[in-house]
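Predict the 3D structure for this chain.
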Amino acid sequence: MTLMAGKNGLVTASGGGIGRASALAFAREGARVLVSDIDDDASRETVDMIRSAGGTAEYLAGDAAEESSAIALVDRVVELWGRLDFAHNNAGIGSPTKPVSEQEGSDWERAFRINLFGMMYAMKHQIRRFKEQKTPGAIVNTASIAAVSANAGLSPYNSSKWGVLGLTQTAATENAADGIRINAIMPGATLTAAIEKWAAEVPDQYAGVLDGIPMKRMGTPDEQANAAVWLCSEQASYITGVALPVDGGLVLRR
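Done. Predicted structure below.
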């Protein structure tokens, strides 16, 4: 039995990294997946990977910062497969490393526009669709362990991710009685392609990061994806408003 058999949903920022791993994992567990990203070529590659493995996927270009994109993604899932059952809102960006006293308003605006406003737009229209359908649904948002810690120099990123947790938990409270479950994963250090490149260039710094993680290794995109799939599945049917660290124990040292 697969965890998401017969379910229909979407994954944002699924052209690579955690988003791609999530789209693949949902499809592997039987879901039909709408892939979305601002990178057309990478997203189509994700779709091809899903189809090559026997899964069902389609692609729609999307910009997480635009409310019109959030509407279009929900509408497209329903147009393709009849209803929306789940969403993994994974889109997000980092911010320049500067102390608060040197931050620019434009960096804050960009981080909040994508990481927080974009999340709000996505959830707004996903929740509306669940209620229109009169069906339960599940949403997982990608936050970060930065949402529960203070990383010097990253005030726009940290603040926006703290906001994601507040938004997630508020919406979970508002919609629980309708059977709509809303949770977040909080990835720790994850071995994406960018991190692999950095590790090869500065192995001493990479080793230092690993030393600070109780499990002494970084997570993989697949491990983040598996957590997102589980939270959307019926195995997590009585879980809502949770911020789940997927971090090898790093948050325990904060």
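DSSP finds eight helices and seven strands in the chain.
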